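The protein record filed below.
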Amino acid sequence: MLCSCASLGAASGVLNLFYRRCLDEVDDAYIGGAEQDVRSQQLDEETVLMLQTRGVLPRFAFLAPNWKAVLVKPNNLLLLFLFPCSAGRIIMLTDMNGSTNSLAISRKRSKRAFFISILLMLGLIGLAMYLLNNSFGIFGNPLRRMTHVLVLAPVPDVGFTNSVALLDDAKDIINARLEIAGVPCEVITGSDRIEVMFCASGNCSAEDVEWMLTRRGELEFRLVHSDSEALVYEMLANNVAPENFSVVIVDGGVFFKLDPSLVGKAEGDVQLAQARRFREIEGYELLLLPVSSKGKGLFEPYYVNLEVELTGADLEWARYEVDVLARPLVTVKMTADGTARFAALTSDYAPGGRENNPPDGFEILAMVFDGEIWSAPRIMEPVLGGKARINGEYSFQQARLISYILSAGELPFSLEVVESRAL
């Protein structure tokens, strides 16, 4: 359809250029009684000269002796559409066999025909805009572009109370996440549901949108126990592991391995959550850092302090990047207050700091996202610029989505999908 419109437009443009050139050569003389005289008459040189003088024919026209002129009034709508630049009388030059050789247009115009042609063109433009909007949503109501619907509800076990204010807060954050991701959307809140209509694309698929909206976006910076390595080593050395986990040695390192039948499934996520209470130490919980680079379902355990040092509320922005080894990462920038607190934290726990006391001299700062430890870097020196990098076992697309989530902020509660359908 678009190709046809483009071809018609190009052809019409070429014809209009030709006819405008003809008009430049035609006088303003009124076409009078010569109409009847030349309707089916053979044109000799004297007649041609007379018609050129009176402005019926362009001055540059060359007519063979056996040509004739036929006068046509442009009452036909198609002719008005093709020749809107000159809604007047059209003189068609044909040979005796009736085949058209060239066209000339008189400069004498009909006001009525001119206005009809303008109205017709406006109508066609309006029709084209309507069809484009109906198909692609290019103009007007953005709902025309929606391709999917997600119905979300608060997760029952998070202590959610039926609060319109909380639902409105969640709506604003969902809008912000999708806006940052460049996804057109319409978010509607109900009594205990949130309906999200959106337009999926190659950059952000329906699965990506679902993943992004079902993440609460809770980011926490927490210190790791100073003796975590020794505590974990003792556990691994005695072959002690949480339920559905085993102790394995890979490339000289000792890890927990999740039962392969549970990897990537909801049951596996449940086991990871339950592992947090395994071999509890007061004030700490056991978090498992995925190390898929070593193998599928492998985790490195850390005892992480329950006390939170900084949160996602201390972030000014987040963005995804690529490190020198072409691995995805997320870089975050703290607010002014967050920068000051982060500088104080890293100064106290860096080697030589007043709070530094692990055996090897390096404290570890865990970055926990939605209850899962995603990165556990050593504090090598004070960080004064307020920037931090989150290196995790995630894909480039996940890094992109995480940056959107952190930039938009944390949801007031976790959400789960009640219904998902394509429009």
